[in-house]
Structure formats: structure tokens, C-alpha cells
Design goal:
374 residues; three-stranded antiparallel sheet; nine-stranded parallel sheet; alpha/beta; TIM Barrel; globular; 17 strands
């Protein structure tokens, strides 16, 4: 299949396999390694697109499964896609909906998948082609090909069938994406997804097959789904080494600092996860000394900021004691403050990672991170 892309990507600096790259479209330019907040239903919970812009977010993730069900991709398209609907001017990556679908134990066949809506029990069909059309309607800058994400642990036969179907679906998704782009030119890109579970041979096979199709970028899927970090690392390395250096690499569903530095050290560029924002809504803050739960009674009289070592953020004016009070009485604003803090902290963590790579000090940064978060 002919390879063509509108996504511009270049490596700016390296330290070992870790790298700083520039990714650009006509809409926006960003540097990697980068973290993408998850806006499941067209919004990152408790905060607005204006908040995200002020925090310095360059790209956010939208969830095709939820948006296709409510309010519907066609309606979103009438508002100018997700950009117009949510008033977001920078980049949007949409997942294919596959991960959420497969968590519902759907009926899967070689052509696609039939699943029941979690909202009203209605049945829906998703194929590689429909996933492309839905994401086009949502107006994402980067869309994901529909894949099969098997549960872990799983028998090799189950993982192999998932990888084989992912390959066949990727071929169809890429063909349909390019055909539609030829008919409706636009600055949009499509990533393929590598599967294979924890099996290194299947990881290699899947990576070579997906890369052979010729996508704009490549994602590592089917990891960070319940396995330990030790179990995750080798399949991650095996997947990464078969993805071309000149294309962006995306690890799906990874957001904790220890996992991030391990993935960055293997040359992965992009990440998303609900972890920082979900922790925030449950009272947990990310700090330079690790995570702290501000619901604890010991913070009731603490008049210091959430993280005394990270005060250049929009939440440093509120004390730990005040936030602990808000949490204890169930005030929703506590989740908003901590969401802003955790995202600001995560963006700063990625900035420090990029800086360490540029300065040739990434291994020291990795070591310190693992000492705190490992």
C-alpha cells in the first residue's frame, strides 16, 4: 500500500534511545515526549478547553465510543467537529473506540464487532471503515485504526487471533482512510496499532505487519491493561524496536511517572491516560516527592501549597488544609483544583523529561524518577 502522510515529524535531540521530536500539522506544532489528557466525552472532567490551553496542553484525546453514542458523531460534525464543539484550537487525537467496545464482551467476527450501548442497551456495529468515518465526522487531527485488544492474561491462541484481526482490520482502515482523504482532502493523520499481548514473537510479527501497511504513526496497544510493569517492559521494547525511527510512537493508556520514563527511554513519544485526572477526583495529588492523598487528617492544618517544590502552577494559592476541607465536605471544586494541579504537574514532568534529553541527562532523570515512583 502506498505510504503518504500530511503529518510532519522530525527528531530534534536524542539521549540513548530517548528522544525529543517535533510533530506538526497545519493546525499546531508540538514537541514530544508529550502527554495527552483524556477528554472521554468531549471534555476533560471538571475543566474546560480554556483551562487546558492555559495549562499548556498541545493535544487532547477524544473517545470515539462514547461520542458516537452521545451526542452522536453527526451532531458533533454539525458544530465543526470536536474542535468547534468544545472550542479547542489545538490538536485532537481520537481512539477508535475498540478498547471500550472490547471491555463489553461484544460479538466479534472477521468483519467487525457488534456491541450493546452502556447508555440505553441498543446494539451498534463497528467495522474498520465505520471507525474511520466516525472519526472523520468528529474531525480529529489524528485517528486510530480499529484494533482488537485482548484481555490479559490470555491464551496465545486468543492473543494471536486478536493480532491477526488487528492486521486485517488495519489494512482495511488505511485503505478507507486514504480513499476518503483523496475525495475530501484534509490535514488529518491515521495511526496503526501494534498488538501481541506479552508474547514477544507476536509483538514482532504484529509490529512488522502494521508498519508494512504504512501509517502516519504507530501505537503500542494491549499493554498497561493490568499486567505488572515488569511484565510490560519487554513486550514494549520488542514493539518499539520494530517501529521506524522517523515516525511517531504512541503508548496507549500510560500515565504514571515510572511507566512514562521507562517508555521514554525506549524511544516512545506520545502518551495518554486517565490516571492523573482520576486520582485528582479522588483527592490524590502528584508531587515531587510522590503522590499524596489530601483527604488524610494530617493535612487538616497544613497551610502550605499542594507541592512546595512545584509552585509555578494555577493552584499554588490554595493550601493543603483548604483542599482537605473541600474534600471532607464533598465540594466538587476540590476535584477541579486537583485536576488542574495534576495536569500542570504532569505537563511539567514531560517538560523536564524533554529538557533532560536535550542536555544529555535523561538517565539521571530516569533514575531519580524511579527512586520516587518505581
Amino acid at each position: 500500500m502506498t505510504f503518504e502522510t500530511t503529518l510532519r515529524f522530525s527528531v530534534l535531540a536524542k539521549d540513548g534511545d530517548a528522544r525529543v521530536c517535533e510533530l506538526s500539522t497545519d493546525r499546531h506544532v508540538l514537541q514530544t515526549p508529550i502527554f495527552m489528557p483524556v477528554g472521554t466525552r468531549g471534555s476533560v472532567r471538571t475543566i474546560t478547553s480554556e483551562d487546558l490551553e492555559e495549562l499548556g496542553a498541545d493535544i487532547i484525546l477524544g473517545n470515539t465510543y462514547h461520542l458516537m453514542l452521545r451526542p452522536g458523531a453527526e451532531l458533533v460534525n454539525q458544530f465543526g467537529g470536536l474542535h468547534g464543539f468544545s472550542n479547542w484550537k489545538r490538536l485532537i487525537l481520537t481512539d477508535s473506540g475498540g478498547y471500550q467496545v472490547f471491555s463489553l464482551e461484544p460479538d466479534v467476527d472477521d468483519d467487525g464487532v457488534t456491541f450493546k450501548s452502556t447508555y440505553d442497551g441498543s446494539f451498534h456495529r463497528l467495522t474498520p471503515e465505520i471507525a474511520v468515518e466516525l472519526q472523520n465526522a468528529l474531525g480529529s487531527d489524528i485517528q486510530m485504526a480499529l484494533d482488537v485488544c485482548p484481555p490479559l492474561p490470555a491464551k496465545k491462541a486468543v492473543v494471536k487471533l486478536a493480532a491477526d484481526r488487528t492486521h486485517k482490520w488495519a489494512l482495511r482502515a488505511r485503505r478507507h482512510f486514504l480513499n476518503l482523504r483523496n475525495d475530501q482532502p484534509g490535514d488529518r493523520a491515521q495511526f496503526g496499532i501494534v498488538q501481541g499481548g506479552l508474547d514477544l514473537d507476536l509483538r514482532k510479527q504484529s509490529a512488522e505487519q502494521i508498519v508494512g501497511i504504512g501509517f502516519d504513526g504507530y501505537a503500542i496497544g494491549g499493554l498497561s491493561v493490568g499486567e505488572t510493569r515488569e511484565e510490560m517492559l519487554e513486550p514494549m521494547y520488542e514493539s518499539t524496536k520494530h517501529i521506524p525511527l522517523e515516525r511517531p510512537r504512541y503508548f496507549m493508556g500510560l500515565g504514571d511517572p515510572a511507566g512514562l520514563v521507562e517508555a521514554i527511554s525506549s524511544g516512545i513519544d506520545m502518551f495518554d491516560c486517565v490516571w492523573p485526572t482520576r486520582l485528582a477526583r479522588h483527592g490524590t495529588a502528584l508531587t515531587m516527592q510522590g503522590r499524596i492523598n489530601l483527604s488524610a487528617a494530617r493535612y487538616a492544618k497544613s497551610d502550605g501549597p499542594i507541592d512546595p517544590e512545584f509552585t509555578k502552577n494555577p493552584t499554588s494559592q490554595w493550601s493543603r488544609g483548604y483542599i482537605r476541607h473541600l474534600l471532607s465536605v464533598g465540594e466538587p471544586v476540590a476535584g477541579r483544583i486537583l485536576t488542574l494541579h495534576n495536569l500542570a504537574w504532569t505537563f511539567d514532568f514531560m517538560r523536564r523529561a524533554r529538557e533532560s534529553i536535550i542536555n544529555g541527562q535523561f538517565m539521571e532523570f530516569r533514575k531519580k524518577t524511579l527512586e520516587i515512583w518505581g
